[in-house]
From TrEMBL:
SUPFAM superfamilies: GlcG-like (SSF143744). It comes from Stappia indica. This is Uncharacterized conserved protein GlcG, DUF336 family. It comes from the Bacteria.
């Protein structure tokens, strides 16, 4: 059985930040949460604005909360806005329902080990960096 260790979380974060640099993205903040929604690792690049840690964590938390990457939340915010609004209310406003929150799975369709949330560039670019980090650590990425 795979496990999300601190070492694996650090590899995810460092790879995601390196991918952002490779793509020439704006300053990123990367949060890795375990399956219970607890913060395992967070890095905020120089120049990241002050709410980026909360946004990154909110993307990851939302993914864990619904068991799907935050792209799923984004689609549902468009088609079922009352549901996503109610869900966010129940979560105390902790969910950020836009792409950039990606589940970490133990293999394709496997157990949810946690989630990565990234904030700083476009949601699609944030998501791409999260996927790069998750895959580099040997896990499967679930975008939703």
């Amino acid at each position: 059985m795979s496990k999300l260790t601190l070492s694996a979380a650090e590899k995810i974060v460092d790879t995601a930040l390196a991918k952002g640099g490779e793509l020439g993205l704006k300053s990123l903040t990367v949060a890795v949460l375990d399956a219970g929604g607890h913060l395992v690792a967070l890095k905020r690049q120089d120049g990241s604005s002050i709410l980026r840690p909360q946004v990154a964590s909110g993307k990851a938390y939302g993914a864990i909360a619904v068991g799907a990457g935050s792209r799923w939340l984004d689609e549902n915010a468009k088609t079922r806005p009352h549901f996503v609004q109610a869900l966010n209310g129940v979560a105390g406003g902790a969910i950020v329902p836009v792409p950039g929150g990606v589940l970490i799975r133990a293999g394709e369709g496997g157990e949810i080990l946690g989630a990565v949330g990234i904030s700083g560039d476009t949601s699609d670019n944030d998501e791409a960096c999260a996927v790069a980090g998750i895959e580099a650590a040997g896990f499967s990425a679930d975008r939703g």
